[in-house]
Amino acid sequence: MKILIGDDHLLFREGLRRLLEQLHGDATFIEAGTFNELLDRCRSDITYDIVLMDLHMPNWPGFDGLRDVQALQPGVPIVVISASEALGDIRGALDHGATGYIPKSSSVKVMMGALNLVFSGGIYVPPGALTASMDAAPRRRSPLDVADRSGGYGLTQRQREVLECLRLGKSNKQIAYELGLSEGTVKIHVTAIFKSLGVKNRTQAVIAAAAMTA
């Protein structure tokens, strides 16, 4: 496993590396101390398994920088690990393609659990961010406001099962296998979930799913 760590604090990179070694003892680590160095590492011939990066590093161009990394390492999960716990930073990172956001203030236990979830293909969002997002959002009628007859909050029972699988980071193929459905049927359910929740992608659906159970 090849892991790219981008952070301008050497001590934090070393500490994160030690944590990751507990999860993947055979991992290879490549590090960058500025955003430009991170891009240089992404331009190399190496295809990383995951990119872990801070926000506001030297040369940080703003959230569009996440898309620059995605363009150079297509399909590779990007997880932000940042000292910032501002809702704007969390939502900005997720809206620009990050597959997770872990605050640096997290305990070792929480960070290990979050990293485990990410490595398993899931998406980690700070629970506090979900609560703040719900409190800050203007109230309007949505599928989450009115439960259907089965208590599904606008979703069928099957759609809720598919949504739970999305929360766990499972692919359409995995979902189809576990629920005994065809991949085409799963795609139809996913599209219906996005429409019902008013979201555009899996990350936003996961946030909505967590909000439903908060």
Quick overview of this protein structure:
With 214 residues, this protein is of the alpha/beta class. It has two domains: 2-135, Response regulator (Rossmann fold, 3-Layer(aba) Sandwich), CATH 3.40.50; 138-213, Winged helix-like DNA-binding domain superfamily/Winged helix DNA-binding domain (Arc Repressor Mutant, subunit A, Orthogonal Bundle), CATH 1.10.10.10.
List the helices and strands and how they pair.
Blueprint: E1 2-6, H1 10-23, E2 28-32, H2 35-43, E3 50-53, H3 64-72, E4 78-82, H4 87-95, E5 100-103, H5 108-119, H6 127-136, H7 157-167, H8 172-179, H9 183-197, H10 202-213
Parallel strand pairs: 1-2, 1-3, 3-4, 4-5
Helix pairs in contact: 2-3, 6-10, 7-9, 7-10, 8-9
